[in-house]
Amino acid sequence: MISKVELRAVSAVGLVYITRMLGLFMILPVLALNSDQYTGATTTTIGLALGIYGLMQALLQVPFGKLSDRIGRKPVILMGLALFAAGSLLAALSESIQMLIFARAIQGAGAVSAALLALLSECSREQNRSKLMAILGISIGLSFGLAMVIGPLLAAAWGMQSIFWLCVALAGLGALAIIGLSPSQGSDSVEHSAKLKSEQAANKAASNRSELWRLNLGIFVLHAVQMSLWIAVPVILLETFDIDQAQHWKWYLLAVGGGFIAMAPFMQAFAKRNWYRSTLLVGIASLAVAQLVLSQSESFGTFIFGLLVFFWGFNLLEATLPSLVSRWVNDQGRGGAMGWYSSSQFLGTFAGGSVGGLLVSQYGLSAVFYFGLTLFVIWFVVATQMRSLPNIKSFVAKDLGTEALDKLASSVGILSVKNFQDEQEVFVKVDMDLVEKQTLETYQLK
After folding, report:
1. For residue 389, what are the contacts with CB-CB under 8 A and spacing of at least 6?
2. By C-alpha distance, which of 61, 84, 108 is closest to 325?
3. In angstroms, rounded to a whole number, what is the distance separating the alpha carbons of residues 87 and 257?
4. Is 303 part of any domain?
5. Sequence-separated (6 or more) residues with CB below 8 Å from residue 238
6. CA-closest candidate to residue 313, choices 359, 344, 271, 282
7. 228 is a domain residue
8. Looking at the domain assignment, is residue 438 inside a domain?
9. 53 versus 398: which is more confidently predicted?
10. Cα 325–329–332 angle (5° rounding)?
11. How confident is the model at residue 335 (pLDDT cuts 50, 70, 90)?
C-alpha cells in the first residue's frame, strides 16, 4: 500500500517530469522535418541541436545532485526549472541553427533529474520503490506519447517556435508542483542515526560500484539509441512510406502507447517476483530485435511493428533502471549516485543525437539501426553479470515519540529511521538479514 508521503512525492515529481519531458519530447519528431526554419541548418547541426541538451545535462547532473545533498532537493529543482524556462524562451526567439543550439544548451543546464529521483527515493520504501518508479516511468511514457501527438500538430500549424513557447509555460507548472510540497519532503525530515555497524554491513553490498556503473552504462545506451532513432524515423515515414507529417502522431501514439500497454503486465509480474535481472535481459533483447526489424523493414506494417517492439522494451527498462540504482546506494550518497546515473542518461542523449546525425550523413538512414543493435549487444553481455540486490525493506511506523525513535534506530539491523513530521509517518529502513524478529514485532514493522 502506498503511504501519504509516497503518494504526495510521486504526484509532485511525476508532474514535473510530465511537464518537462513533454516540452523536450515534442521537438524529436519534427525538428529534422522543419530544419528549413533555421538558417545554416544541416543534418549534422540538427543532430547537434537535438543532442546538445543531453551533453549539458550530462555535465551538470552530478554537481546539481551533490548540491541537492547539501542544500536540499527543492531549491535545486526550482533553480533547474528556471534555467529550462530561460533556454526555452531563447529557443522560441531563435532564427539560426547556431542560436537554437545555444538555446538548447541553456535548456539542458537545468539538470534536475538527479535531485528529482533522489527526492522520490527518500520519500519511498524499498519494496514500493519499483512501483513508484514505474508510476514515474508511466508519466514519462504518457508525456512521450502525448508529445508525439502534440509536437507534429503544433509544428504544422504554428511552426517550431510554438513548441518552445509551450515549454516556458510547462516549466512554470512544474515549479508550482514542487513549491506545493511540504518542507519535510524536501530533505528536511528528521532522521535518527542508526548503528554504524549495521549501516556498514548493509553498505558493503549496497554500494557496490560495479553494479552502479553497469546500470549507468545501460541508461546511456538506452537513450543514445532512442535519440538516434529520431534522426531517421520521421524521414523514413515521410519519404519511404509517404506518410504526411501531420499524420505521424497517429503512428507514434500506436507504437508508444501500444508498447506501454503490452509491457505493463510483464513489468508487474517481474517486479512481484523480484526478477530484476530477467527484466533487464528480456528488455535489452527486445530492443536488439527491434533494431533488426527496423533495419530490414520493407513494408510499412513491419516498420511500425519494429517501433512497437522498441517502445515495449524502452518503457520496461525506463521504469526499472532508476529503481535499481536507488536500491544499490545508501541514503547519504543518493544525490551524487543519481547524478552519475542521470549524467549517463543525458550523455547518451547527446551521443545518440550527434552520432546519429553523422551516421545518417555518411551512410544513410539505416545506419542508426545498426548503431543501436551494436550498443544493445554490448549492454546485454554486460548485464549478464548483474548480482542479486541486498535484502533491504522499509516499513511505515506511527505514534512513536523521540525516545522510541532513538531506541529503534539503535537496534541491530535498523539502517535508518526517518520521521516525516508533517505527514505523521516514520520510514524505518531494515536489513532483513540482520534484524531481530523481536524488533519487528515490538514496533509493528510489517
Report:
1. 274, 276, 324, 327, 328
2. 61
3. 29
4. yes
5. 33, 244, 245, 248
6. 282
7. yes
8. no
9. 53
10. 130
11. confident
With pLDDT > 70 as the criterion, what percentage of the chain qualifies?
Answer: 87
Q: How many whole angstroms separate alpha carbon 399 and alpha carbon 292?
A: 57
Report the CATH number that the domain containing residue 33 is assigned in CATH.
Answer: 1.20.1250.20
The reported pTM is 0.70
CB 5 within 8 A of CB 123: yes
Q: C-alpha cell of 201? A: 554491513
Maximum C-alpha span of the chain: 71
In a domain, 407, yes or no: no
Mean pLDDT of 60-76: 86
Who contacts 5 (Cβ-Cβ below 8 Å, separation ≥6)?
123, 124, 185, 420, 423, 425, 427
pLDDT of residue 207: 46
Strand bridging mode 414-420 / 190-192: antiparallel
Closest by CA position to 331, among listed 111, 129, 78: 129
% of the chain surpassing 90 pLDDT = 20
pLDDT in tens, 266-295: 776 776 666 778 888 999 999 999 999 999
The number of domains in the chain is 1
Q: What is the residue range of 241's domain?
A: 4-383
β-partners of residue 430 are: 393, 414
pLDDT per residue as tens digits for the range 102-115: 999 999 898 888 88
d(CA 180, CA 353): 35
Q: Across the strands, what pairs with 418?
A: 191, 427
Edge to edge, the sheet with strand 190-192 lists 190-192, 414-420, 425-431, 392-397
Q: What angle do CA 1, 137, 237 make, to 5 degrees?
A: 150
